Amino acid sequence: MTAYANRTAEQLRQEYETVTRAFEEAKGRHLKLDMSRGKPGKAQLDLVSDILTVLAKPEDCMDGSIDARNYGELSGLPSAKQLFAEILGCKPQEIFVGGNASLNLMYDIISKGMTHGLLHSPRPWSQEKTVKFLCPAPGYDRHFKVTESFGMELITIPMLETGPDMDAVEKAVQDPAVKGIWCVPKYSNPQGYIYSDETIDRLAALKPAAPDFTIMWDNAYCIHEFDGDFVPFRDILTVCREAGNPDMVYEFASTSKITLPGAGVAVFATSEANMAYMCKLLTVEVISYDKVNQLRHVRYLKDKAHTLALMKKHAAIMKPKFDAVADALEREIAPLGIGSWCRPKGGYFISYDAMPGTAKRALALCKEAGVVMTGAGATFPYGVDPDDSNIRIAPSLPPVEELEAAISVFCICVRMAALEKLLGK
Amino acid sequence: MTAYANRTAEQLRQEYETVTRAFEEAKGRHLKLDMSRGKPGKAQLDLVSDILTVLAKPEDCMDGSIDARNYGELSGLPSAKQLFAEILGCKPQEIFVGGNASLNLMYDIISKGMTHGLLHSPRPWSQEKTVKFLCPAPGYDRHFKVTESFGMELITIPMLETGPDMDAVEKAVQDPAVKGIWCVPKYSNPQGYIYSDETIDRLAALKPAAPDFTIMWDNAYCIHEFDGDFVPFRDILTVCREAGNPDMVYEFASTSKITLPGAGVAVFATSEANMAYMCKLLTVEVISYDKVNQLRHVRYLKDKAHTLALMKKHAAIMKPKFDAVADALEREIAPLGIGSWCRPKGGYFISYDAMPGTAKRALALCKEAGVVMTGAGATFPYGVDPDDSNIRIAPSLPPVEELEAAISVFCICVRMAALEKLLGK
User: From the CA of B148, how many Å to the nearest CA of chain A?
Assistant: First the structure.
């Protein structure tokens, strides 16, 4: 196969005819395939079924002297704090165990920034003329949406293979209106990058103009390797503390992709000063989150080593799916020189950069052929990709055979969109 | 026994000596008793243990074609909406099924009023100069605290046996800064009153100056009779709709006192227009609440009739506790004419009105003798009871024998506080 860039106009026209026929044929199959969201597949859900019955009798519901069934323990069960502290590498008293959704905790903290301010806020953000938030992009659409929904101005920060472009971040935080940054430090969504040590050090050592500047550290994929062994990561709370910024970070994690996506347990971790401040606000909002589910997780996951062993079983299900996608891209697209991507070793996504100006069209074609993908642009603030190039592929939900069908359609569609562009159609 | 009002100073002094001795004797027993919060007791938690294992296998987790374990279904499982719609008497599409805490849903709606405004808000409440909220008192401290925490001005509305004083409410809502009212319509917290039909009709027919005035209708004790049969109640959504105010109410309920207090399911019910508006805001905050727990509840509670049968079992545990408290008050206090209370047939509290100016002192004495009660004043906005008289008694947590010990100490303490007052000590 010759790269499209090296083909004559006639050759491209012939290729377009071939691809169009393939597209029509795919359409004729009336597929209904979904690579849109990072949802675990059924095999992963079935893997953890024992968690459903790990608490069966009244006496199972005791965590020491605490009855997990009754009201109380705002910040979570002690044993659950212990478990997550071990996984994240922080202290139990720095952990708040919430409900089933880390997004909910993130939203809540941003919302409290708006209505009450954070620990070092001169005033609630709703009383600021402008509030800006840094959004490394490509990034996670739901993060960006949270801050957008409160009317904040989203500032795009380029994502490098080492993490957010720190030159850009260091410059941006000189503006006192900039109140924070969204980060997915390990297996970033969607590119699967791991922040470098230098990036982490520079983030922790920031000297922002805003005294309440906050790193929203979404460690969603902290133990989510599907290729190779667990990759250790640094405790961001310690790094920030040692850099003289102990209260500058809230870290988030959940078991949504460890146990059950809709029925897991989410946590945030932060300095004890932040914790005391936030608990004073949270006690007005809720008496306690679901401690029975917290205890289910403690009994089922046991400790970090046991949890990592479970992640190996998830990995065995995930790896063939990522391989199917990456292999197809390497086979079908690489030789044509019309797209780029990287092959992550963890997380839930593959980030595909299509020929600039063709992402939207490629995804419209996918939709026409029955393959649902995350909307083009979703990985950028306000849902607008200035290059119309980035596409997030989520291979986790469909079984491998469906995934192979879906990625094959995807390859046809990105080729077709590229050809249309090259041929000026 | 002679009422204190009819005793001579000398008789009162003698009584004071007797009571003081009884108090010292009680202190000597080093009690540790808790009548402070409406927590169900262990027998009630044990009653519902089957809910822990009602979902045991992957196939149990399917609700029709929906896998309760995975992400999705923001507004809740269809079967859970059906169950709560039947219990509350509204339509399934008017139900949003959330996490484990109705307080959390209430807070969230008030918070969104602040940051985004409600459906008919001219602007977010955070941009109003003043926001006021009506607080029928005695009432629920956590309600008042939510609105207080956002800096709202709390307006006390007297509670009558028929519900909030509607003359006062109708007058208050002429102020456009008044954005809502807290209501516990059935077995009100703490008095156990049921709003009369006239009160409900007048509430639904309000013509508030604020276009976004909202009734926060916390139907916490909707099926929580402990004495006698289920008392039917009107669907507030229908009453408001028929009065021409379809979007004026959010209703709340939960299974915290039906299944497990810390691991139940909470819902709000509201008009479809409000629902559409709120879901657009909620989708930024959470992908879905814990649907596995929702499905557990559906399978365990089945339907309204089956749920009411369960409530009869709770009632059998609760009634002896309320009887122990009310009987002791009638025996020890009624003849002395130093307090008043009523004997509710449902809910979780008995409201005791002590001799004015003695509630704080009585509770300080209780604490000294090892009996923890809800703080004096808690039932009023800002925690300040202008008469220093109202005390909320929560008999649900302790076993009957402990409760008898606790209420006996309580009676000694209210007598002692009254005598100190009468003797000018």
Answer: 10
pLDDT above 90 (res A194): yes
Q: Give the nearest chain A residue to B108 (CA atoms).
A: A285
Please name the member of A42, A52, A58 whose beta carbon is closest to the beta carbon of B45. A58
CA A328-A331-A332 angle, to 5 degrees, is: 80
Out of A56, A285, A291, the one facing B107 most closely (by C-beta) is A285
- CB contact (8 A) between residue B71 and residue A262: yes
* pTM of the predicted protein model: 0.97
What ranges in B64-192 are assigned the alpha helix state H? Answer: 78-88, 102-115, 141-149, 166-172
Distance of alpha carbon B316 from alpha carbon B415, whole angstroms: 31
**Tens digits of per-residue pLDDT, A34-61?**
998 889 999 999 999 999 999 999 999 9
Q: How many residues does chain B have?
A: 425
* Cβ atoms < 10 Å from Cβ of B58: 16
Please say whether the beta carbons of B354 and B414 come within 8 A: yes
Nearest to A49 by CA among B80, B100, B62: B62
- Residue A319 has what pLDDT? 98
Q: Which residues of A touch B37 (CB under 8 A)?
A: 71
> The complex's ipTM?
0.97
pLDDT tens digit sequence for B249-260: 999 999 999 999
CB–CB contact A288 B99 (8 Å): no
Is the CB of A52 less than 8 angstroms away from the CB of B55?
A: yes
Per-residue pLDDT of B347-405, as tens digits, reads 999 999 999 999 999 999 999 999 999 999 999 999 999 999 999 999 999 999 999 99
Residue B96: the pLDDT is 98
CA contacts within 13 A on the Cβ side of B87:
33
Residues of A in contact with B263 (CB under 8 A): 68-69, 290-293
CB contact under 8 A, A104 and B42: no
For the segment B205-225, what is each residue's pLDDT rounded down to a tens digit? 999 999 999 999 999 999 999
Long-range interactions of B365-368: CB distance < 8 A, separation 24+: B365/B23, B365/B412, B365/B413, B365/B416, B365/B417, B366/B409, B366/B410, B366/B413, B368/B27
Partnered with residue A252 across adjacent β-strands are A218, A268
Q: How far is CA B274 from CA A393, B92, B96, in A?
A: 35, 14, 11
CA distance B58 to chain A (A): 6
